[in-house]
Amino acid sequence: METRDYQAVVIGAGPGGYPAGIRLAQLGIKTLVIEREYWGGVCLNVGCIPSKALITASKKYKEVQNLEILGITIPGAPVLDMGKLQEWKSSIVTKLTGGVSTLLKANGADMLFGEANITKPGEVEVETADGKVLVRAPHIVIATGSRPIQIPGFAYADDRVMDSTKALALDTVPDDLVVIGGGYIGLELGTMMAKVGSNVTVVEMQGNVLPGFDMDCVRLIKRRLKKNGIKVLTNAKALGWDEGDDKAIVRIETKKGVEEIPADKILVTVGRFPNSEPFKHLNLEMEGRHIKIDRQQQTSVPGIYAIGDVATGLMLAHKATHEGEVVAEVIAGHKTFNDARTVPAVVFTDPEIATAGLQEHEAREAGFDVKVGKFPWAANGRALTQLETDGFVKVVLDATDDRVLGVTIIGPHASDLISEATLAVEMDAEALDIGLAIHPHPTLGEAVMEASKAALGEAVHIVNRR
User: Fold this and answer.
1) Among this protein's residues, is 281 annotated catalytic?
2) Are residues 241 and 287 in the same domain?
3) Is residue 97 a contact partner of residue 39, using CB atoms and an 8 Å limit?
């Protein structure tokens, strides 16, 4: 068996693993990054990037049908070519995944394609196409990500049943689609499919969609789902499905009894499991299915670290990237800690939702006396010119000192605007730090400034609450 020696080994080349490999190499650490499936991981190949490409396309397809208000008339109905759309999506994925390999090589990290197994601390055995390779390194980073949860009665091996990966590869639009799970992935993909012509039904076990999100946002999203023709069943459980004459018949248990819904495709989006099982033999301390880590990404076994979805915390790509950079600096001997105050979250529904810090209900539940400033997009000039006036910016303050506890945005470009809010939470800013910063006009960013002022009763472009 071939033996190789390194200072650090990273298992997994997703949004956590490849940044860790790049940063380690930048810091002069001899590093090997091992990947078993595809460079860039789920995010770049079958997750964040391709889904946002298709969401963008569906939004534009819908917009082009409603341009008469701007004085623009397009003869005939627009036609969607799913084949060409998939080609465009794939071109973006190819460009980005190719960039991952280029960056790793350019920074001096070595790459190996194969299945990795940590035989013991300091040793990794890799099954490659050319045989087994034994890799020795004092530092091993687990960055193996996560996978979709499969529920009883809905096997992904069946042609009718899809996880998010299969849904993003569709070359035809299903006439009838049942989405099991009303969380962010289900609503993102369900909305996308509805906009390009699917008759969509969302099935959610809990009492509402988007559990845990600000109820003002949830109410708006539910109105938009209805406007897009999406039927939502809450307090409902998917029991199973049978093959009908030409469609699947999905059985749904509701308070009214069992309903049968026809479907060409069934999309299951009930969450993800961290890929932690291969490391059970190491007796790592766990938090549920996640590997427990400290503020330096160190596990309970010295020399073994964990980052991203497989580690404790939120399962978000940008969280994984940050952790990858932190663990690289820790391994290089820097006094670095992961002490982020907040990990922003984004839901690419219609409209988008983005949060940083505490949402209003979370702040109240945590015992804070809060002030809330809320600025509607209907009062923002730039939103009006973009025909996107649904939603608001909500700024939540600690009433004792006006510190920004959190910001919630629902509406146009919420995903872009949340970065200013994230910085405000990280720097422990006060409302006036945002409110007194001159924001350019006319822009969407002015709404963040106005909401901050509204929390203090000083907004100019809406009537302040007394």
Assistant:
1) no
2) no
3) yes
